[in-house]
């Protein structure tokens, strides 16, 4: 799990960097990924916090 801070226009790049790190650390993906939106309504999009969650199998 990691937290992305910023507008949704950058979420794809954040996912790619997160996935690259997971595989570089020797882990394998183990299930569906998901996003959890942490910011309250009314917060400007550039200040949003989003959890990126990808289950893994430990190496």
How do you describe this structure in short?
With 59 residues, the chain is of the alpha+beta class.
Helix/strand-derived category reads alpha+beta
Spans with pLDDT under 50 lasting ≥5 residues? none
What overall form do the CA principal axes indicate? Answer: elongated
The succession of helices and strands, N to C, reads EHEEEE
Radius of gyration: 13 Å
Count structural domains.
1
Average the pLDDT over all residues and give the rounded result. Answer: 96
How far apart lie the N and C ends?
16 Å
Strand line-up across the major sheet: 1-4-3
Count of runs of 4 or more consecutive helical residues: 1
Strand content: 25-35%
Approximately how much helix is present in the residues? 10-25%
Query: Care to count the β-strands?
Result: 5
Largest sheet: 3 strands, antiparallel
